[in-house]
Amino acid sequence: MTKQLITVLDTVLKGLMRRYSERVPDVHRIINAMINEGIIKSADEIENDHIAFRTMGVRNLGIASLEKIFLHYGYEKRDPYNFAEKKLSAYWYAPPTIEQNLPRIFVSELRVPELSKNAQSIIHNYTDVVTSDPVDSLDLNDGAAVDQFLHQSLWPVPKLADYQALLSESEYAAWVIYNRYYLNHFTISVHNLKPGFNTIDKFVAFLQRHGIKLNSAGGIVKVSPDGGLLQASTVAQMTEAEFADGEKFSIAGSYVEFAERQVLPQFADLPADQISRVHRREGFEAGNADKIFESTFVAQVNQ
């Protein structure tokens, strides 16, 4: 990966995090609590395990479009995931170099053809205005342009009635039709924090002490079958959205995730100061992710 691409990617990632942090008050609330308790001295000490995007699986959009951005920066496409009940597909992307502690990327898409005819019609009424892949006309070596693209409207702001119709069938669809490519979440690597806070259970206890509302779907802590990946998340914070017809309605925004990646068995005897990313459990777990998706669902945000 060239220095130029590292600089461009840094611009993109910082732009994503800046706007995401502005929209998700829990980000500052959690970071300030971590600083106040001496867990970190500044936000720069936090390793971002991964960031996630949601997309619509329609022509010119979806995973096939969005992934072009990160593949250009040297990310490598890895395992596929299927979420049958939610009608979602996903892939994760490994960063080009582990030395930079760059976040993994997780991109999911809604399998629109599996929805009802009415939901498909609503979605296409908006997304059909995108008549060519927008990433193809984007200068991927211009970090500011990519940052702007990831925060711009690709289709018209929906009508409230359309949003609510989608919400009743697919909460994921409703989230994407309004929020588009806004960063869905970033993830604090819990295992790299100081002792006393470097396990998911201890960090969850810290969050609960500070009154942070957590996603309880499948349990507060989601654990992979091999026990190597443990995850938790806040619930999305509600934000007042203005729809095309001028009506305002509170909708789910984005949230914060927390991940603990266990040291792999073959490296169990390594001294703690020698352990890096390559020694820990990699990838994701469909069962965990399935419940993490629900951080933006009504049942969670209204609990």
From TrEMBL:
<protein>
    <recommendedName>
        <fullName>2-oxoadipate dioxygenase/decarboxylase</fullName>
        <ecNumber>1.13.11.93</ecNumber>
    </recommendedName>
</protein>
<dbReference type="InterPro" id="IPR009770">
    <property type="entry name" value="HGLS"/>
</dbReference>
<keyword id="KW-0560">Oxidoreductase</keyword>
<comment type="similarity">
    <text>Belongs to the 2-oxoadipate dioxygenase/decarboxylase family.</text>
</comment>
<keyword id="KW-0408">Iron</keyword>
<dbReference type="GO" id="GO:0051213">
    <property type="term" value="F:dioxygenase activity"/>
</dbReference>
<keyword id="KW-0223">Dioxygenase</keyword>
<dbReference type="Pfam" id="PF07063">
    <property type="entry name" value="HGLS"/>
</dbReference>
